[in-house]
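Running log. JK asked me to keep both predictions on one page so they can be read side by side. First protein, sequence followed by its tokens:
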Amino acid sequence: MNIYIKLTKEFNAGRTRAILSGGQAVVLHRLAIMSKDGDWVIREDRETVDHILKVLESHGAIYRFGAPMDIRWLAGGWSCHFEFKDGLLRVRTDFMSRPPRVDNERLVSLWEEAESKEIPFLDAVTLIETKKTNREKDYAVIGELTQKLKNISDILLYSRSAKKLKKISQEYPHETAKLIKYRPLLSLCGGNIEDIETALDRERRNFMHANEERLLRYMNASSEWEKQWPDVLLEIKGMSLIAAHKIIVKRAEGILPFQVLERKE
């Protein structure tokens, strides 16, 4: 069994606590054969944190640099990173409770939908939102994910194909008009393909720049914590994960802010 599927089952033993995201979700959408790391969206509560830490400890996991797995940092959009060896495989696991560009209403729906799945993983639309990163390769993934969309509004809001947008907008002019305020480039769909393609490129660059700015805010906020991290590693060397976790939380308090301020326009 895929180690990430196995972990998901262990995380969700007795209660749904974790939803696969990132590359593993792309695999489960059958758009990739494999992905080397595991990413999860987790519930933002103490029981979830305690359970996942116990599962990770049972695998001999250690912390990688990032925020402690603590609901105070999770609530601020921070991510937590661990790794362990599974035979010859180095398993990297990343967790967050508030994925970027996914609002609270959608998060509530995600957890409701997850309850009915044996292996919960992000739906195509939510996965698309999380893939609006500063990495070029993620836009190829978005393009593939949009091929799975059936809802006309979703296609209009997320398609990366100028030809498809032009065709759908001609077939559904009223739906297109309603969505222009959410995706301005739809106003160009009555024109030529080249203008739509140019707008799609500009949109992609804007998404990339926005994510770069978001990451930079977190990098700046964690700069002092990063300086302390080598000393933290020395202090926790040889400890069990849960024992190390307690020290990491204490060391991070007062150094790593729980919330990262949005950039002021």
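And the second, directly underneath as requested:
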Amino acid sequence: MIRTLTEDDALDLERVGYERGDVLRAATGRPDAHRYRVDPANPLVVDGLVLLEEDDGAVRFLDTNRVPLTVRDLRRFRILEKVADAPPTDQEPTGVSSQPATPDLVDLRDDALDNDLVDGVDFAIGASTAREAITFDDGFVVGYRDAGTTTTLFTSRSFAQARAVFLDEACWLGAERGRGPYVGRDQAVGTEGWTSAQVVAAYERRLLEGP
């Protein structure tokens, strides 16, 4: 069911996984989940510009073009406030290692490994069976794989640009798991210091131009 998010929807939600995903659930207090709260006073909510999709306990937010908003988007537009971080997992990482096909991709894998990330778990180069990982595919495409589905985060004609985005995203995902150079750092969402009017204008541009 899809409906308009309203000022009455002061929802407490949680998500297990990186903020590049878009699926949340009602807060249950599970220890491995990040916790979030909807800000019902947000101007975008007040003006009816955010939709809520509910399906078998799962919750997603959509813009009025019915394009899903990731948790990062929701925080960027201040629709969601982060209440608490999940502690890093202490599970032993296991995954299927990448098989890079070119010297550049071999070097890219080595760069990720040098950042203490786990191949086939935190990142994957080429085909992957990872449950949640940052991916690098043909055409210099950086993606986010979550529960078997990969969404594109960035694409470029430049290997160097795609490499930088890939390593940055993989390091942030690794940090959630207690690995890599970004552990202990807070990830910016890009609208820190903006006025409310600037945030609303950015959201309206998204509606006109797409994500």
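Observation for JK regarding the second prediction: The chain has two domains: 2-87, 103-176.
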